[in-house]
Specification:
The protein has one domain: Nucleic acid-binding proteins (OB fold (Dihydrolipoamide Acetyltransferase, E2P)). 6% of the residues lie in helices and 47% in strands. β5 and β6 form a beta hairpin. The radius of gyration is 20 Å and the shape is globular. The relative contact order is 0.18.
């Protein structure tokens, strides 16, 4: 039986990232993400609902998130769902569904200031991936440079 487990979410951090170290020495960060949806109801009134999601980030990517992210920052997370299960101190079984991040992209939102006090450049964003890198968001190709439609195969 085939299965597929992929999650893509964009929202704002509900708290500053928390960096911890596992018993094995691996770094892990816990993020709280608020993903909001807005719409107008049948009476034309604005409505909003928010889903709160726990995200876990590992290794160098966890360190980078803790270094550069803060409460309120807009991020895009790609990852997979993971079910964590444990027994609490009262002997009760507990579980929590979280997103295990493979990629965290820092989104520009105009409200963040860089360390020199100036605003971040419009369109600037940073990405952390499972490969433990931060890289600028790739620029979109100039459509005029793509050539004529005659050489397209469809």
């Amino acid at each position: 039986m085939a299965s597929f487990n992929k999650v893509i979410l964009m929202g704002r951090l509900t708290r500053d990232p928390e960096l911890k170290q596992a018993a094995s020495g691996v770094k892990v960060a816990d993020l709280g993400l608020a993903v909001s949806e807005q719409w107008k109801d049948k009476n034309g009134e604005a409505q909003e609902t928010t889903c709160f999601v726990d995200v876990v980030v590992w290794n160098k990517q966890a360190e980078i998130c803790c270094q550069y992210l803060a409460k309120g920052r807009l991020i895009l997370v790609e990852g997979r769902l993971q079910l964590d299960e444990w027994t609490n101190t009262q002997g009760e079984k507990r579980s929590k569904l979280r997103v295990r991040a493979n990629r965290v992209q820092f989104m520009p939102d105009g409200s963040r200031r860089n360390e020199s006090g100036g605003s971040e450049q419009p369109g600037a964003s940073h990405t952390t991936t499972a490969a433990d890198q931060i890289s600028p968001k790739p620029e979109s190709p100039d459509l005029d440079d793509l050539g004529d439609d005659d050489d397209l195969p469809f």
